[in-house]
Amino acid sequence: MERGLYIAAAGMVAEMVRQDQISNDLANAATPGYKSDRSQQRSFEDLLLENTKTGQQVGKLGIGPLITKQVTDFTPEALKATDEPLDLAIAGPGFFGVQTADGVRYTRNGSFQANKAGELIDQMGNKVLGTDKKPVKVNADGTVDVAKVGNFNLTNPAKSGDSYVTGTAAGTAKGEVQSGVLEGSGVDAGRTMVDMMASMRAFEAGQKAIQTIDSTLQLASSQVGNLPA
Asked: Can you tell me the distance from the alpha carbon of 196 to that of 190, in angstroms, rounded to the nearest whole number?
């Protein structure tokens, strides 16, 4: 019976991790260039059961699932026209480079603007880097030369928060920087809502399993001792 408690609890913990990931995806369903995540799950090693008296093997018992890692889908999404000259997007692979206080970070979110110095910045106020890895200048007419905006190829990209990605820059990516458009979010809101409901049902099933096992243990402890000899 106690093994059942641990198995149900392991399943609930795995679903809590999935719900955090799904909630983050839903919160960014409208964020330009956002990339959705997927949780990879596997089972713990099976427990081999044996007869305590004879040593004969009875069979195997799974001891619950666990989340092994989260994987980000960096597939480029469709571009949507905004007609704003400082809205940029990359058609195809690549990332914009941004100079932050923690070093260079990369992003697919091209919702940019100009600072007082006439430099292209992102929503966090960080400067966008050009092909020469220097801040991109905004023209007097409020436009930028997209040919001068850096499009960096990354190896081992990984999310680091605030739509930023870390990774090792390895030359120029093949994607084309375009103006007046933004890349759509990689979140399918309908599918993600279905995933959330399925995760919640699985979590509730784990709760019910624990409640059932707990009730059975209470009956065993309170009534078994009262049975007539």
From this structure: 10
The range of the structural domain enclosing residue 66 comes to 2-74+187-214
Looking at this protein, which amino acid is placed at residue 154?
A: L
Assign 207 to helix, strand or coil. Answer: helix
What average pLDDT is seen over the chain?
88
Is 154:165 a contact under the CB 8 Å cutoff? yes
Pairing state between β 164-172 and 57-61 = unpaired
| Joined tokens for residue 30 | 């409208």
Q: Which residues contact 133 (CB under 8 A, 6 or more apart)?
A: 97, 104, 150
Examine the domain organization and report whether 49 and 91 are in the same domain: no
Q: Which of 102, 106, 108 is nearest to 88 (CA)?
A: 108
- Is 67 a member of any domain? yes
Q: Which of 139, 141, 133, 104 is nearest to 119 (CA)?
A: 139
70 shares a domain with 115? no
Specify the pTM: 0.79
For 42-86, the pLDDT digits (tens) are: 665 665 556 667 767 666 656 667 777 888 999 999 999 999 999
Q: For residue 174, is it within any domain?
A: yes
- What are the beta bridge partners of residue 114? 120
Written as one letter, the residue type at 85 is P
> pLDDT digits over 148-182, tens only?
999 999 999 999 888 999 999 989 999 999 999 99
Percent of the chain exceeding pLDDT 90 equals 63
Q: Specify whether 198 is located in the same domain as 109.
A: no
Decide: helix, strand or coil at residue 52. Answer: coil
Same domain, 174 and 89: yes
